[in-house]
Amino acid sequence: MTVADRKTAIMEAAARVIARRGVRGLRVEELAAEAGVSTALIYYHFKDRAGILRRTLEFINDRAAHYTTDRAPDAAPLDPREELEQTLLLELQDVDVVRENSAAWGELRATAMFEPELRDALAEATRVWVREVAALLGDLRPTAAAAALTVAAERLTALVEGVSMRWLSGTLPLERARELTRDAIEAELERLGGP
Amino acid sequence: MTVADRKTAIMEAAARVIARRGVRGLRVEELAAEAGVSTALIYYHFKDRAGILRRTLEFINDRAAHYTTDRAPDAAPLDPREELEQTLLLELQDVDVVRENSAAWGELRATAMFEPELRDALAEATRVWVREVAALLGDLRPTAAAAALTVAAERLTALVEGVSMRWLSGTLPLERARELTRDAIEAELERLGGP
DNA sequence: GTCTATATCAGGATAGAC
DNA sequence: GTCTATCCTGATATAGAC
Question: How many domains is chain B built from?
């Protein structure tokens, strides 16, 4: 295993531990055990606890970008509507990597309320996501104004974050969360001009 | 100052400290200083750290219930539409108590992902809120089906939580958060049957 | 680069006086 | 009920060998 692989393995482990215990519950010792390395090595590579969190946020963002766009090479291309649903509903699946990402994402957003140094990365990731959703909406409603698309995308992504929190905190069943999201997509598309 | 008053003062202080530092950042010592008492007294009244959190969640729920319904006795009665906007937008105001409540609420929801003992109180509070919003929607759209009202209320309240998180984590300006919420109310009302 | 061992210290919790 | 003083655990972080 190369050094780069090992660093990646540590960040994968960090995502798992954060999903399991939260940012608050992340213990460097537990992370070390999860990754099968010593605590000293973690500090060697990531400097300190804040460094672990920062790098893990980046890692999660990258991974989300990939599971959003990576598709089997032989799969039929998605139509825009399917792609839009995918993009939003992907955050709401009971699949390890996704659940980890969503949980870690929620945690990191919550943490960012009190740690300004996470804010920039968070704001940027949000911006990218909103832009992506707005673009997909634009494909489906080419005549809609750019501002209207952005507002709709902000509402949809904020809703997904909201229902995701409820899902992960056990307040809302997953299927219900997905249903609310699907309906909201429907509603926004109607709002942007009927089909 | 009576004992009951003192306990209330401690919980008010807890809400302030949680809003400022987060659940993870809550130090019993800082709480004690904020409330002007000793740490020993906190433990005397609340047993342990978990007890502080549990009681504080109850406290902010009660307080939110009151600032939602308390109104100057001489004020003109709100019409249902205003009342609906109030109920949802009240969580999005740059007023100390509200900001505290919203921040603490977001924190506690995030914490509940990993601490099952907070879940019940959280789920119950959410249920009450959804029911309240659904009832207000029902006043405005008496012909709508109950299930449709509930779904709309779930979407709206989840959206408010989502934009609230973004607001408090510095990703979205307050005015924008309010605007998105207002538009969403508009959209849900249209969806439930035009005015 | 990676480990074992350990320093350091913050903060939760309690004892005991008043 | 409330305080002062203190204990002690658990977690971050580092020293130094390999």
Answer: 1
